[in-house]
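Exercise: predict the fold of this chain.
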Amino acid sequence: MEITGIFSAIIIGLIIGALGRLIVPGKQHLPIWLTLLLGIVAAFVGGWVAAIFSTAFLWVLLVQVLVAAVIVYLADGMYARNAG
């Protein structure tokens, strides 16, 4: 991945984290900074997974958002269990 791709993934990751949080139903117990951090991770992981099949922008974006939703859902379950 080139340096521009890394910066793009970080910026897009912030947006993807917020979108992933919106997709997950119910109240999330995660702080917003953790959601954004998970979005950055999802951007890298989702971009890598999507690139295996296609490099079309909408496809990559869709996979990144879905990966973010799954990561936020799983992290929220662990965070809520440990916090309460």
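Check your answer against the key: Helices lie at 3-23, 32-53, 57-83.
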